[in-house]
């Protein structure tokens, strides 16, 4: 399969998606960097990495890939596919909750819904891990992390418009994974409760 990394050689809908991605205004604390896109997955692809930081402390990381096949893919139920990955620390006590994975998946669906991001065919998985250090590292506190891997087909306009809502949903998912609540327009993030406890 031929992959075309140059968006100027791509169909108009994909060019629109890339332009909207590069011009997107992300919420405070989310830093985006364009990275090489995956090869041989779709004829056209664009990818970015995401870091969530607050007061110079990294809270979480993520990736977002947008795939495009002008002929459409049956399993996608469309010509575009969004692939998202979000990873962040959670309170160790939360990992013992058997419903945590379901909660993590609900964050994705709620983020898409809160931004009116129309989509079909969602899929993915949620992993929750817990670790404790021993010996010379015994004083380090227990660490728990959540990883959400998901993909869905965005329902975009004929010219590729509409990806912005999905970008906002991804940013919200990353923040949810790190324990940061949704942020109204113009409001500055405060230090998370988890971090304030650690600073005491």
Overview of this protein structure:
This protein is α+β, with helices and mostly antiparallel strands. It has one domain (7-199). Helices cover 26% and strands 36% of the residues. The protein has 5 helices and 6 strands. The chain has helices at residues 12-23, 92-95, 100-114, 163-177, 193-199, and strands at 30-35, 44-54, 57-73, 78-90, 119-131, 143-154. Strands 1-2-3-4-6-5 form a 6-stranded antiparallel β-sheet. β1 and β2 form a beta hairpin. α3 runs antiparallel to α4 (163-177). It is elongated, with a radius of gyration of 18 Å.
Give a count of the beta strands, DSSP E runs of length 2 or more.
Answer: 6
* Helix and strand sequence: HEEEEHHEEHH
The global form is: elongated
Head-to-tail CA distance between termini: 55 Å
- With helices defined by DSSP (H or I, 4 residues minimum), what is the helix count? 5
Mean pLDDT, to the nearest integer, reads: 84
User: How many individual domains?
Assistant: 1
Largest sheet entry: 6 strands, antiparallel
Strand residue percentage: 35-45%
SSE class? alpha+beta
Widest beta sheet: strand line-up: 1-2-3-4-6-5
Radius of gyration: 18 Å
List low-confidence stretches: 186-200
Give the proportion of residues in helices. 25-40%
Short structural description:
By secondary structure, the protein is α+β, with helices and mostly antiparallel strands.
């Amino acid at each position: 399969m031929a992959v075309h990394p140059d968006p100027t050689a791509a169909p108009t809908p994909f060019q629109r998606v890339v332009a909207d991605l590069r011009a997107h205004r992300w919420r405070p604390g989310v830093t985006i960097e364009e990275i090489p896109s995956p090869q041989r997955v779709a004829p056209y692809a664009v990818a970015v990495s995401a870091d969530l930081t607050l007061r110079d402390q990294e809270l979480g990381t993520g990736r977002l890939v947008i795939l495009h096949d002008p002929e459409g893919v049956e399993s996608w139920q469309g010509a575009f596919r969004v692939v998202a990955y979000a990873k962040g620390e959670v309170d160790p006590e939360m990992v013992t909750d058997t419903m945590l994975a379901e909660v993590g998946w609900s964050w994705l669906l709620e983020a898409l819904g809160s931004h009116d991001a129309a989509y079909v065919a969602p899929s993915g998985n949620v992993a929750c891990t817990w670790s404790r250090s021993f010996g010379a590292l015994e004083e380090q506190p227990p660490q728990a992390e959540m990883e959400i891997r998901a993909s869905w087909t965005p329902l975009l306009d004929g010219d590729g418009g509409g990806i912005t809502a999905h970008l906002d949903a991804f940013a919200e998912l990353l923040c949810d994974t790190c324990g940061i609540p949704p942020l109204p327009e113009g409001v500055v993030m405060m230090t998370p409760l988890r971090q304030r406890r650690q600073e005491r």
